[in-house]
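Colleagues,

For the teaching module next term, I've prepared a clean inverse folding example: a structure given as tokens, and then the sequence designed for it. I'd like students to try predicting residues themselves before seeing the answer, so please don't circulate the second half yet.
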């Protein structure tokens, strides 16, 4: 099945060039010409990836990105930023974007980043996981706890999914880093801890006494599904 991309970009020339190129690479492309339309489509239709310009009419890309995450959607988001807006990239990543490219960008680099994001987001084939109060809708990239949407970044979602696929298995930080981030370097293992801490804040009723993501001293973590867990 071809992966679908939503391109939110108000500059018509760039929109046309880029959608042609993405289609020639085999992606199904839909587009939106302003932030409002971008948000509406992103939350109404299932996309595998969203390319989001920051400077947009009606609603800027930051607001759109934040609001998409608030809806509980973890679809990977790639931001298009202007050359001299380094601060903007940081803001964007904090709001839940996964990566960015700077305009004017090299198309090959953009394609490589798209591929990397999609590869990380590739799912195992199971559609829904239910662990007690926690429900993970893999295809819809949505997580709810007691029916309430949980706001996760795409990376947090991928990490949670990796845990869900390995219930009860002790996973080392190196292994998690390699499988979820694709890094080989062990210098980034702290990254895993940071994301686990963030997931606990969002998923656990008592983050300091976690029920789902358990620390395994000196090794890493283990996900406990508990009674009543099932795959659908
Ligand atoms: Ca623009």
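(Answer key — instructors only)
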């Amino acid at each position: 099945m071809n992966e679908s991309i939503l391109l939110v970009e108000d500059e018509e020339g760039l929109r046309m060039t880029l959608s042609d190129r993405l289609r020639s690479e085999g992606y199904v492309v839909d587009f939106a010409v302003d932030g409002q339309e971008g948000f509406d489509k992103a939350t109404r239709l299932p996309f595998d990836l969203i390319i989001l310009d920051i400077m947009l009419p009606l609603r800027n890309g930051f607001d759109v990105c934040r609001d998409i995450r608030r809806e509980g959607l973890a679809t990977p988001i790639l931001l298009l930023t202007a050359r001299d807006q380094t601060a903007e990239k940081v803001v964007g990543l904090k709001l839940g974007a996964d990566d960015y490219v700077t305009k004017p960008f090299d198309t090959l680099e953009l394609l490589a980043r798209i591929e990397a994001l999609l590869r990380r987001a590739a799912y195992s084939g199971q559609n829904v996981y239910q662990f007690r109060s926690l429900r993970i809708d893999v295809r819809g990239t949505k997580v709810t706890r007691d029916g309430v949407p949980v706001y996760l970044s795409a990376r947090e979602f991928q990490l949670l999914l990796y845990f869900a696929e390995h219930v009860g298995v002790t996973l080392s930080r190196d292994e998690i880093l390699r499988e979820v981030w694709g890094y080989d370097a062990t210098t980034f293992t702290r990254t895993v801890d940071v994301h686990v801490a963030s997931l606990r804040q969002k998923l656990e009723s008592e983050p300091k006494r976690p029920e789902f993501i358990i620390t395994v001293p000196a090794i890493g973590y283990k996900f406990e599904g508990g009674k009543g867990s099932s795959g659908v």
